[in-house]
Amino acid sequence: MIAIIAAIDKNNALGFKNRLLFYLPDDLKRFKALTTGHTVVMGRKTFDSLPKGALPNRRNIVLSRSARLELPGAEVYASLEEALQHCADDEQVFIMGGASVYKQAMPLADRLYMTEIDAEAAEADVYFPAIDHQVWHETKRDVRRADDRHPCNYAFVDYER
Fold this sequence. Notes:
Layout: E1 2-8, E2 13-16, E3 19-20, H1 25-35, E4 39-43, H2 44-49, E5 59-63, E6 74-77, H3 80-85, E7 93-95, H4 99-105, E8 111-117, E9 126-127, E10 137-144, E11 154-160
Parallel strand pairs: 1-7, 1-8, 4-5, 4-7, 5-6
Antiparallel strand pairs: 2-3, 2-9, 8-11, 10-11
């Protein structure tokens, strides 16, 4: 099973200068709960943005054109296709960015785990591909309100193909 996990603003923006657009602690908790014990696949820039390197208690796969690249705690493959060939059929794989990896994974994914942020980022330089609602059907929506730890309203939204 291949799932995509991402947080986007109203304009499908993902990030700015290799950073998340909004700090939402409950989104980070959900990400950890969903991905722990599974495989996460990311591009090199996304890996570089992780504050402590490879994510603990997960199989970390990084996509990079640099064949000799070695990253502590991560396997490196040249393409998404190659990385997926090294995953078992029953392995739960989460695609976690960046934008070009999401674009490649959209036709392959079975599920989307989205955090849809009810705000527009002041600045953004990477965007999530459009979600085609003829293909993706919402199966769950958990709306959350802004509070002292979360600067804006948002919703956890799951989609299936």
